[in-house]
Amino acid sequence: MMHLNLFLFGCGHHKGAWRHPNSSVEQLGDIRYYERLAQTAERGKLDAVFFADGQSAGNVSDGSPWFLEPLTAMAAMSRATDRIGLISTVSSTFYTPFHAARLVASLDHISGGRVGWNVVTSMFDVEARNHGYEAMPKHTDRYRRADEFVDAVLKLWDSWQADALTFDRQGHYADPDKVQPINHDGEFFLVDGPLNVPRPPQGHPVLFQAGASEQGRELAARRAEAIYAVAYDLPAAQDYYRDIKRRVQEAGRTTSVPIMPGLVTYVASTEDEARAKQRELDELLPVAASLRQLGQYTEQDCMNWELDEPVPGLPSLDAFNGPKGRYSTILRIIETEQPTVRQLLGRLAAGGGHCTMVGTPEQIADKMERWFRNEGADGFNLMPPSLPAGIEDFVDQVVPELQRRGLFRTEYRGTTLRDHLGLARPES
Amino acid sequence: MMHLNLFLFGCGHHKGAWRHPNSSVEQLGDIRYYERLAQTAERGKLDAVFFADGQSAGNVSDGSPWFLEPLTAMAAMSRATDRIGLISTVSSTFYTPFHAARLVASLDHISGGRVGWNVVTSMFDVEARNHGYEAMPKHTDRYRRADEFVDAVLKLWDSWQADALTFDRQGHYADPDKVQPINHDGEFFLVDGPLNVPRPPQGHPVLFQAGASEQGRELAARRAEAIYAVAYDLPAAQDYYRDIKRRVQEAGRTTSVPIMPGLVTYVASTEDEARAKQRELDELLPVAASLRQLGQYTEQDCMNWELDEPVPGLPSLDAFNGPKGRYSTILRIIETEQPTVRQLLGRLAAGGGHCTMVGTPEQIADKMERWFRNEGADGFNLMPPSLPAGIEDFVDQVVPELQRRGLFRTEYRGTTLRDHLGLARPES
């Protein structure tokens, strides 16, 4: 069976989405908006909703994905739903392991075992400078720290054995032999423990990770129980998929580690209608600002490019001296899709290097099935370009098609996120 | 009008409460238990529910007040209630100001402006050693840090002006001139800002503090908008009340700062019945462990003291060489209440140095009124010895009596915690 998460992000993953006349932008501070999104995802029997997170306000002029803080929002969302998993990003660079372990464990209790933790190390100096650092620690240091951070968090979750709570009114509230300090004293952290939250219902809330760099992939292979990936097309997805599965095996792990690339979909009953939805969002982008940003990405003067003409020729990757990640994505989009300038701006504004599928439910299910059956993906992290419309479309149109093909559940079998993902509950 | 908070604490503030056959101990990990408590408090039109917090597991053998983490629990509780305020303790010693400001601001949005923040500096080495410190920083350093912490948090809440969000689909999501960095660079914290959560509905969530030491009182006088106090009897309450009100005035503040001492109540339709409730809980205390603890407090060998005889004579405060705070409380309890040994153990096991009132609704309302009318209290932080029974008793029996006397609201007038407490909304 395929796994599907809904990746929540403001009014949707398309940067122009909030500008749509019917957008949900006025509701971004209203918890009921997020509750309804989770309910829609649950109606579609999705595995989980997934919250990204960042530690700086960003460019507030052009829309912001941040409003409510994910852990507090998810606590409320858990009470408006019964089965769906709830995954929050928590940075290992800014919290202490004790706070992170405790907040996530508490959410696991509140939700009855439906919580996942997406471990990130954060990236930007503007984030670091909100938390006491002059600048972001180096990549290698962040990952060493993340590794120790995860280690300490797991030990804290293990500091209460599953049967520690006895509630024996003539004796112990908890068996003191089954609640033990962890005495963690490492390079980055001192944490005595035990945690002040009993063992989470799932044993360990599910560990997500999105490793792209060498260090990130190594951390993912050793630690992650499910992986959020970035893959522009099937060959790129297969490269990543095989590499991670190999690393997981080499790390001596025998568990399956579902890999879920991000996926942007525009779905409608005809392909034309689906493309019209995409075009409608693309046309909402502020042209001058988008061209200026494209100019930064490509180191070209794009301000006079014709919006509805094909993208002019660009230097090869080798001949390009700026940051290569985004530039190589741009070259691949141009090569495979031959977009107009406006279409390129739209692609970059919705999901960037992630895969985009546009078409009928059958067409999209065909592509998803191809990825799923050919070592490209164990599932997808859905990145609807606009919310709530994009997830309603997916749940109402694509999910039934996947179910018809026997690729996706028609009912939840279990009650925890581990159940949905087919992951075993760790012993204490 | 009087202000009343429900101070949540495990199965109640009496250390023996969880041992009662009908106790709620099995529900401490169940968010519905806390939701129902908040609903009961809201039925009684209380100002708020109040969460204490600690950063270590404590003695898990003898019951624990910690299970769910307060901020995540309160997010859920806010969705099960409409009007009642929700106050969480957040330590200024272990979080970064950005995390604290963001979590509390997010809760204020989720709850529609019903959140308060109880600033504490934490006290114990076992807490420090869960968050990377070898030992707790010195008292003076903790308070200097707390002062700067509050300063940074307030600046972060102010970093978005109230009308910053424009949602102008042809222009700005937020007016960039109304979202500004704070560039805080102090002795303890570097925080650039702005916050990544827009200005909270209350402007600033309400600042609670419980200042007992000289530095604590100074911080409370300068910063707190409402104060949680400890007062054993009316004269002690008056001393504290007058001292804080004077300090607030000297700090140049013209706002009222409600002072709310903790209050343990045993209420029933007859005084005998109320005393029986108290005795029932006192008898649940494990005798040997309680006598051993009393022995530590008093530096006496108490193990052979007769439980139902008066407490033997103790050395005067001057002649006592151990920690004096708790010892002076014990002397006062003996002096004013002439308790048996068992009663003394019970008093210490429920609220310690806080005021205890035992009797009929009329008797308790009489005493509360006397405190309220004589510069002892602007309200009370209710510490029911057992939960949920203790708050149900209070809401069903004492609240109607206070309402009859015109001392307590019969309906909420506003929708925010500031409204309930009569506090103005800070300008941005």
Name the descriptors.
428 residues; alpha/beta; TIM Barrel; 2 domains; eight-stranded parallel beta barrel; 39% helix; 12% strand; oxidoreductase (chains A, B); Luciferase-like_sf (chains A, B); FMN (chains A, B); NTA_MOA (chains A, B); Diverse_substr_monoxygenases (chains A, B)
Alpha plus pi helix count of chain A: 14
What percentage of amino acids of chain A are in beta strands? 5-15%
Q: How far apart lie the N and C ends of chain A?
A: 28 Å
- Beta strands of chain A, count: 11
Strand order within the widest beta sheet of chain A: 1-2-3-4-7-8-9-11
Fill in the CATH topology of the largest domain in chain A.
TIM Barrel
Taken from the alpha-carbon principal axes, the silhouette of chain A is globular
Question: Please, what is the CATH homologous superfamily of the largest domain in chain A?
Answer: Luciferase-like domain
Largest sheet of chain A: 8 strands, parallel, barrel
Whole-number average pLDDT of chain A?
A: 95
Protein name (chains A, B): Monooxygenase
Pfam families (chains A, B): Bac_luciferase (PF00296)
GO molecular function (chains A, B): monooxygenase activity; oxidoreductase activity, acting on paired donors, with incorporation or reduction of molecular oxygen
Organism (chains A, B): Oceanisphaera arctica
